[in-house]
Amino acid sequence: MNLERRVLENRFVRLEPMTQAHRDDLREACEADPATWTELYPFSWAFEHFDPTWATLERDMAAGRTIAFAVMADGRCRGLSCYASIDPANAAVEIGGTYYHPALRGGAVNPAAKRLLLAHAFEAGARRVQFKVDAINVRSRAAVLKLGATQEGILRQDRVTWTGRIRDTVVFSVLAEEWPSVRDGLDARLAEFAEP
To answer: pTM surpassing 0.90?
Structure first.
C-alpha cells in the first residue's frame, strides 16, 4: 500500500492535502459548531484548542502517521478528513478525523469525499479501510453504514475524550473485495444529487 498526498476531486468536492494555506478557513469552519466538539469528538478543534490540535496534526503528518485533507467547497476549506493509522505492512488504513461545517452536512459532500478517499486507498493497495466512530454519535454511525461499511463491533471504554468522558468506539470496515459493491452503491447514491 502506497498512499500519496495528492488532490482528490469529483463534481461535488475537492480534497486538497492540508497545508498552512487552509488553516484560517479550517479554524472558521471548526468554530461554526462548538457543541459538536464538546459532545462528539475525542479532541477539539474549536477556539483555544485549535492551535494545539493543529500542531498535533502537523506532527502526525510529518511523521507519516496521518495524511490530512482540506475539504474544499466554494473555493474554501470547510472541513477536514484524514487517513490515519496508516499501516503499509498490513495494507490497512483508517479514514477519520472528519469534520464538516454544518452547512455541508446531509448532502453530497460526505459520500463524495468518502468515495474519493476509499477509491484512492484501494487503488493504492489497501486491503482494509476502517472507520472508528464514537458510540454516542448516532449521525456518524448512520452515515458510515450508509456508505456501505460493515459494523464489526464496539470497543468498550476505548478512549478518554478531551472532556474526560470515557468513550466506547464503534469499528466499521470495507475490505478490498467489498469495494466494487460499495463503490457502485456510492456512485448510485451520488447520481441522485443534482449538479452542484
So the answer is: yes
pLDDT in tens, 159-178: 999 989 899 999 999 999 99
Give residue 179's identity as a one-letter amino acid code.
W
Q: Is 112 exposed, middle or buried (0-12, 13-18, 19+ CB in 10 A)?
A: buried
Which phi and psi (to 5°) does residue 163 adopt?
-90, -5
CA distance 28 to 25: 5
Q: What is the DSSP letter of 149?
A: P
Q: Please, are residues 116 and 10 in contact by the beta-carbon 8 Å criterion?
A: yes
Q: Tens digit of pLDDT for each residue in 50-65? A: 999 999 999 999 999 9
Q: Within 10 A of 22 (CB to CB), how many other CB atoms are there?
A: 21
Q: What is the mean pLDDT of the chain?
A: 93
Return phi, psi of residue 77, to 5°. -70, 120
Task: Note whether 168 and 137 are within 8 A (CB).
Answer: no
> Cα separation of 10 and 173, whole Å?
23
State yes or no: pLDDT of 108 exceeds 70.
yes
37 confidence band (pLDDT: 50, 70, 90): confident
Q: What domains appear along the chain, each with residue ranges and CATH number?
A: 8-191 (3.40.630.30)
Burial class (CB in 10 A: 0-12, 13-18, 19+), 162: middle
Distance CA 147, CA 23 (A): 28
